[in-house]
Write a structure and sequence with these properties.
It is a single chain. This protein is of the alpha+beta class. The chain folds into two domains: 101 residues; 157 residues, Alpha-Beta Plaits. It contains eight helices and six strands. It has a four-stranded antiparallel sheet with strand order 2-3-1-6, with helices on both faces. A two-stranded antiparallel sheet has the order 4-5. A hairpin with a 6-residue loop joins β4 and β5. α5 packs across α6. It is elongated. InterPro entries: Diguanylate_Cyclase, GGDEF_dom, Nucleotide_cyclase, Rev_trsase/Diguanyl_cyclase. It holds the Pfam family GGDEF. Keywords: Membrane, Transmembrane, Transmembrane helix.
Amino acid sequence: MSYADWYDVAGEAGITLMTLIWIFFTLASRPSGKVTNMLFGGLLLTHVSMLLDLIDEFLTYPASSAWLTTIESIPAPFGMVIMSVGLYWWHQEQHVINQQLRKTERYYREHSYVDFVSGLYSAEYMKMQLQHELNYITGNQGTFSLLMLDICQFSKFNHRFGAVQGDNLLREIAQLVQMNIRNGDLACRFASDRFIVLLPQTQLQGANTIANHIQTAIAHLAHKSGETTKAIYPSIAICAKQYGGLHSYQDILADLSLSLTQQKRNAA
């Protein structure tokens, strides 16, 4: 083989390997279903075409079998059509998922900021979103409100029932918080047993209404630990505050955290 032929082999081998890697990550990353099947089928046909093209570099067919070289590219276009249909279905699927995640993501998706216990984004993500909101309202003379809540006696609950049940309780409360906020609001886990909710373009009166809805919903949560039928009804402390664009997000978070601490101290 000439150097040019070896370059051709290297290129075809690289494409063949990459399609195989795409197949692996598609199957490893997605649940079973028609979208996954279409993506897998399309990639597999494309891979077959690339593999036949690579093998063709090492085989010499007799004149009577020369037609074999003409069919090596046939699977690829069929694979691309199937994969295109799969991508369209994936787009529809992702649109539905985006609607479900709207209260946890807002404008920006970054999996490294996800808190995998609660399913919400972390405090770092909230800081990014607060800075985004401050930049927006500074130019538009707007306002926003924040809620901060934590679970009363959570450390005692953890000590009594264990960390696994503590994580289950955090997940349940995170779900209730999401159910009681609006599209466009953002809920994040702020600390161990503390959550924070951003309410864009919301006055304090509206924030207090949402806070009451969250508190009522959590007060009616009948959490069950393990196999027991006995319910535990958690309670939370929650505070709401309204802010403008004249503060930094660091000052806002410090003020909100202090307000919640004082509220808990006054209620004790």
